[in-house]
Amino acid sequence: MKVVLIKDFEGYGTMGTVIEVKDGFARNYLIPRGIALPATESNLRHVQSILSQKQRKLQKEKEKALALAKKLEGLVLEIKHQVGEKGKLYGSVTSAEIAKAFAEKGIEIDRKKIILAKPIRDVGIHTVSIKLHPEVEVQIKVDVQPQG
Predict the structure, then answer these.
(1) What is the mean pLDDT of each run of 10 residues along the chain (148 residues)?
(2) How far apart are CA 51 and CA 57, in angstroms?
(3) What's residue 148's pLDDT?
(4) Nearest-CA neighbor of 14 among 55, 60, 61?
């Protein structure tokens, strides 16, 4: 039986893929669980329309990410942190602190999108990556200064 996948299914394909499976597997597993639909002309058109909507949505998200990346380019964030001897920090600067510093500047960035290659434990300027979209990544400078 030919079915069209309406969800990604490990080992069989991604959404919109037409696959040939045994009748019992399709009727008893794939269709009842909402993983696939019979590969009729109307179901194929329906899945294609969903895919095109999803593609447009992803394109809009990418455009927003590119606009934000342009805004962030060349930005230097200043973060005050408690410092011990020889310029070493108590603890380290976390992605949550960087996100908070962005929020103070009026820019909302999820802390999960901030990628720290290694923990920031020294005073000074450090480069941090922010992955705004799977295809858009921007580098910013974080200037860690002693508090007080």
Answers:
(1) 93 92 95 95 93 94 92 89 81 90 90 90 90 91 87
(2) 10
(3) 67
(4) 55
Rounded to a whole number of angstroms, the CA Rg of the chain reads: 24
| β-strand partners of 9 | 13
- Contact, 115 vs 129, CB < 8 A? yes
The pTM of the full predicted model, rounded to 2 decimals, is 0.69
State the DSSP string of the chain. Answer: -EEEESS-BTTTB-TT-EEE--HHHIIIIITTTTSEEE--HHHHHHHHHHHHHHHHHHHHHHHHHHHHHHHHTT-EEEEEE-B-GGGEEEEEE-HHHHHHHHHHTT----GGGEE-SS-EEESEEEEEEEEEETTEEEEEEEEEEE--
Tell me the backbone φ, ψ of residue 31, rounded to 5 degrees: -70, -50
